[in-house]
Amino acid sequence: MNIKKYEAFVRAVELGSLSKAAEELGYTQSGISHMMQALENEVGFPLLVRSSSGIQPNAEGELLLPVIRQLLNTNESLEQHIAQIKGCDVGRLRIAAFDSVATYWLPAIISAFRQEYPNVEIQIMEGGVDRVEETMESGEADLCIYAGGRSNSFDWIPLCEDEMLALVPPDHPLAQQDEVELSALMDEQFIMPQQGYGYEVRQILDQLPHYPHIRFSACSDYVIVNMITKGLGVSILSSLLLNNYQNNAVTKHLSPRQYRKLGMGVSHLRTTSPVAQNFMQYVKAYVRELQQEAN
To answer: In angstroms, rounded to a whole number, what is the distance separating the alpha carbons of residues 242 and 124?
Structure first.
């Protein structure tokens, strides 16, 4: 089996272009076109729809895409195990993570990891809960780090609790209080993270008799922070973000205290690639160090 044409098919679909896939994978335009033709001849039916705007999978291609991704993941794991037996550390690691985790955790973790494993290629995909779980389900990511654990389709390793804090404008009356009663938010203009980005916030607000007045919504936590700084409302965001992002808004503990649980997820712990297993140890060590500094 020539695994290269399957890899070329997946990258062409992800990039929406044969020429871009050829450039990334080191093929000529005609070379990758011949590979796609050979793949379609092998399976016995067309897989791609070509147009002036690029390419996309047809119905049959969509059906095969997740299976081919799984095949590539299995092959990658096999190559890594072989490399590990030979004493080499090579391969690729694709990480799906919350924006805040990707911004404030991963750079330090990757820096430490690459000192020992400099030849490992690392790809990072940021997003909310929906995006993270989607990439895990489709096989686009090998490892996820987020406040999840809801899905039964992959194995979950808890890491730590991340406190959720109230964020209010500097001249807001709530800014003068030691803590913000959760019920006090019911009468406020609230800026809500959009669907897929605010599960933890919605779970907290579900404890109230009714939601606050939802005045705005936004995907980006940084947009929300800056809107609050300008006095456009209040919100609830994670301490991981708020302790690292400099702004003029005021953070307050909620009463009662509220937390989200951050952790790692992999498809199956027993079959996780050596590269992912090594990286997970670095994540655990980094979180332990953060907790020791906090104490």
So the answer is: 22
pTM: 0.72
Q: In whole angstroms, how large is the CA radius of gyration of the chain?
A: 23
- The backbone torsions φ and ψ at residue 172, rounded to the nearest 5 degrees and listed phi first, read -80, 145
Cα(132)–Cα(139) distance, integer angstroms: 11
d(CA 98, CA 145): 7
User: CA-based angle 211:217:222, to the nearest 5?
Assistant: 120
Q: What is the DSSP letter of 232?
A: S
Phi, psi torsion values for 269, nearest 5 degrees: -60, -40
> For residue 96, what are the β-bridge partners?
125, 144
pLDDT tens figures, 228-283: 999 999 999 999 999 888 888 999 999 999 999 999 999 888 888 888 999 999 99
| 122 beta partners | 93
**Cα separation of 128 and 126, whole Å?**
7
Could you tell me the pLDDT band of residue 152, with boundaries at 50, 70 and 90?
A: low
